[in-house]
Amino acid sequence: MRILITNDDGINAPGLEVLHEIATEIAGPSGEVWTVAPAFEQSGVGHCISYTHPMMIAKLGPRRYAAEGSPADCVLAGIYDVFQGGRPDLVLSGVNRGNNAGENVLYSGTIGGAMEAALQGVPAIALSQFMGPATNELEDPFEAARAHGTKVVRDLLDKGLWDPHDYRVFYNVNFPPVGAAGVKGTRIAAQGYRRETFFGVEPHISPSGRKFLWITGGPQHEPTAPGTDVAVNLEGYIAITPMRADLTAHDRLAELEARMA
């Protein structure tokens, strides 16, 4: 098996090392793991691509490349430059430092990398490690992902639904904010929504008198509806969410058509 891995925390992020370990186990002795990851952190870029300017790509070592672009850019670079138009058997994106659950999904570069792979017709899984007080006390805050990630990926490859539709399913995996021993199991969960948790801005004045704005986030440990991703994570379970890039509100089409007729 040939696996392409990427992330949004950057080529030197510790979560990418964890993902490489997982991918190496999945690929097996005769397989290959290729890394094409952002040269610099790209958190929060979503599914953006560098459409209006070129990006530099550099080979750092055997099967290891850094690209000055987003995670989606890295997937494109991997397929069309590194692989010369060939397709990997699987794309893994992560392991992100922090959860990509609830509304975070819409902003996540980790999700963007997996989404681009799915649009390219390649099976893809995004993996993220929820952080919190319990993980802050661990020597390895990625302990849960490191210990359980290989099994989750194998289970999805063996039992997951990998349909051939135009907007292919890809998977979003979030490991709970606990140590490896504290993981209670796995739950299939819909994307949740943290109410009253929003991104905003915080202004700062530089020494030169210019105003700069820092983006601020909301509380991450606010639970979502029971059974959805953040809620099951906070209960100690690994959350697995099947996703598509199709943003159509299918449940509103018939009613809207009737109203507009």
From TrEMBL:
Domain annotation Survival protein SurE-like phosphatase/nucleotidase: ranges: 3-195
SUPFAM superfamilies: SurE-like
Entry's cofactor comment: Binds 1 divalent metal cation per subunit.
GO molecular function ontology, one term from the record: 3'-nucleotidase activity
Record's keyword terms, sorted: Cytoplasm, Hydrolase, Metal-binding, Nucleotide-binding
Cofactor(s) required, per the database record: a divalent metal cation
Annotated binding of a divalent metal cation, by residue: D8, D9, S43, N96
Principal location listed in the UniProt entry: cytoplasm
EC number(s) stated in the UniProt entry for this protein: 3.1.3.5
Catalysed reaction equations from the record: a ribonucleoside 5'-phosphate + H2O = a ribonucleoside + phosphate
Origin superkingdom: Bacteria
Cellular compartments annotated: Cytoplasm
InterPro entries hit by this protein: SurE, SurE-like_Pase/nucleotidase, SurE-like_sf
PANTHER family (UniProt xref): 5'-NUCLEOTIDASE SURE (PTHR30457), PHOSPHATASE, PUTATIVE (AFU_ORTHOLOGUE AFUA_4G01070)-RELATED (PTHR30457:SF0)
Function text: Nucleotidase that shows phosphatase activity on nucleoside 5'-monophosphates.
Entry's family note: Belongs to the SurE nucleotidase family.
NCBIfam families linked: PRK00346.1-4 (NF001490), PRK13931.1 (NF010541), surE (TIGR00087)
Name this polypeptide is given: 5'-nucleotidase SurE
Native organism: Albidovulum sediminicola
Gene (name only): surE
